C-alpha cells in the first residue's frame, strides 16, 4: 500500500501572534508546519522554537553561501530540531556534503537528524525566468541536473515542483524525500507561483510532502481549507 502524501502548512507571516493562532488552530490538522525567512527574520529563533513546539517543523531557510558558512549555520540551527531543513542545491557538491556532515555531527542519533533538502529550481520560476538568470536550459533539465548532484552529495531529498516528480523518481528512485510547493487546489489563485499542480495531482505524481501556504492561510476559514486538502490527499 502506498503512503499518503503529507501536508505542510506554510506559516508565512511576520506576526508571532498570527503564527501562534495558526499553530493552535491548524497545527494538529496538518502533518507539519513550515517556518521560513519572513517569520524567522521578523520574530527570531526563540519564536520559531515556541511556535513549532509539539509539531513537526519544516525549517525552510534555504541556506546558500560558502561551504563553511552553510555548515556552521546549520549547526547553529540544530537546537530548533527541525524534521526537515533546506539549503540551495546550486551551492554545489562541497556545500551540500559539508551540510550533511554538520547535521550528522549535531545529531549522532540518525533517527533524530533533520532531513537535509536541497532546493532545485524555485517553483516561482518558469522557462523565461530561469533563462534570465543565465541558466540556458529548461526547469526540468535544471531540476534533474541539480537533483542528481544534491543526492550524490548527501542530501536526503529535494524541493521541486510537482511537474518534475516523475523525472526525478525515474532517475533517482523512491528513496529521496520529495517536498513539493507550488500547490494550488483547483480554482485558487496561482499568485507568484509558476509551476503549479493540485494536491491530488502532486500526490498521484508521488510527492512525499506538499507545502501549502496562501491557499490555507489566506482562506476565509484556514482550518477548513487545511481539512479539505487533507481530505483530498487521503482520497488521491
Ligand atoms: O521552490 C520553492 C521553495 C519553497 N517554497 C515555499 O513554499 C511556500 C509556498 O507558499 P504558497 O503561499 O503556497 O505559494 C512558501 O513558504 C515558499 O517559501 C516555494 O513556494 N517554492
UniProtKB/TrEMBL annotation:
<comment type="similarity">
    <text>Belongs to the OMP decarboxylase family. Type 1 subfamily.</text>
</comment>
<feature type="binding site">
    <location>
        <position position="214"/>
    </location>
    <ligand>
        <name>substrate</name>
    </ligand>
</feature>
<feature type="binding site">
    <location>
        <position position="184"/>
    </location>
    <ligand>
        <name>substrate</name>
    </ligand>
</feature>
<keyword id="KW-0456">Lyase</keyword>
<feature type="active site" description="Proton donor">
    <location>
        <position position="62"/>
    </location>
</feature>
<feature type="binding site">
    <location>
        <position position="34"/>
    </location>
    <ligand>
        <name>substrate</name>
    </ligand>
</feature>
<protein>
    <recommendedName>
        <fullName>Orotidine 5'-phosphate decarboxylase</fullName>
        <ecNumber>4.1.1.23</ecNumber>
    </recommendedName>
</protein>
<dbReference type="InterPro" id="IPR018089">
    <property type="entry name" value="OMPdecase_AS"/>
</dbReference>
<feature type="binding site">
    <location>
        <position position="12"/>
    </location>
    <ligand>
        <name>substrate</name>
    </ligand>
</feature>
<dbReference type="InterPro" id="IPR001754">
    <property type="entry name" value="OMPdeCOase_dom"/>
</dbReference>
<dbReference type="InterPro" id="IPR047596">
    <property type="entry name" value="OMPdecase_bac"/>
</dbReference>
<comment type="pathway">
    <text>Pyrimidine metabolism; UMP biosynthesis via de novo pathway; UMP from orotate: step 2/2.</text>
</comment>
<feature type="domain" description="Orotidine 5'-phosphate decarboxylase">
    <location>
        <begin position="6"/>
        <end position="229"/>
    </location>
</feature>
<comment type="function">
    <text>Catalyzes the decarboxylation of orotidine 5'-monophosphate (OMP) to uridine 5'-monophosphate (UMP).</text>
</comment>
<dbReference type="InterPro" id="IPR011060">
    <property type="entry name" value="RibuloseP-bd_barrel"/>
</dbReference>
<keyword id="KW-0665">Pyrimidine biosynthesis</keyword>
<dbReference type="InterPro" id="IPR013785">
    <property type="entry name" value="Aldolase_TIM"/>
</dbReference>
<dbReference type="Pfam" id="PF00215">
    <property type="entry name" value="OMPdecase"/>
</dbReference>
<feature type="binding site">
    <location>
        <position position="123"/>
    </location>
    <ligand>
        <name>substrate</name>
    </ligand>
</feature>
<feature type="binding site">
    <location>
        <position position="193"/>
    </location>
    <ligand>
        <name>substrate</name>
    </ligand>
</feature>
<feature type="binding site">
    <location>
        <position position="213"/>
    </location>
    <ligand>
        <name>substrate</name>
    </ligand>
</feature>
<keyword id="KW-0210">Decarboxylase</keyword>
<dbReference type="InterPro" id="IPR014732">
    <property type="entry name" value="OMPdecase"/>
</dbReference>
<feature type="binding site">
    <location>
        <begin position="60"/>
        <end position="69"/>
    </location>
    <ligand>
        <name>substrate</name>
    </ligand>
</feature>
<comment type="subunit">
    <text>Homodimer.</text>
</comment>
